[in-house]
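Long-time lurker, finally posting.

We've been working with Copper chaperone PCu(A)C (Neptunicoccus cionae) and I want a structural starting point before designing mutants. I don't trust myself to interpret raw outputs, so I'm hoping someone here can both generate the structure tokens and explain anything notable. Sequence follows.
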Amino acid sequence: MYKSILLAGVLAGFGGLAIAEQVTVDPSSKPSAHAVILGQLSITDGFARATLPNQPVGGGFFTVTNNGDADDRLVSVSTAVSSGGEIHEMSMTDSVMKMRKLEDGLAIPAGETVVLKPGGFHLMFTGLTQPLVKGEVLPVTLTFEAAGEVTVPLAIKAPNARGSGGHSTHDGH
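Top reply, 14 upvotes:
Generated this for you. Predicted structure of Copper chaperone PCu(A)C:
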């Protein structure tokens, strides 16, 4: 059963940032308690890692499932607490961990699930204007080529958080 909610208000720690976004929540989605639905996309398990004071970058992670019959693409990301947002990929090449910005965004194939996780695909928040504090929520705006734009709340977890899947750490940031 789906229900529609309105995310609105002033979030503590975001200097008066107000968010008003109509989203649909699927309380039965697993493994997280809620999903943000945008068209045929379902976004779950969102989190960011806490940062140290004066740390210039942060990372964000989530799972997106494309329940439709057409491909989509995550083309941009932004948040009010950073001057820039990028979509990155980490990979191993000749026993060396490499990170690169995905200039054309991240493909979300029809009927598939893409996981952004430490050590793999992830969001990079550059030029942080304040620390990401464990226990707070970071509103992040995701823009998809076909589905459009949605603001997703990322729970800020410990600096070494791995998410719900127990994936490798993302200590390079």
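Before you design anything, note these points.
The CA atoms of residues 160 and 169 lie 6 Å apart.
The first strand starts at residue 3 and ends at 10.
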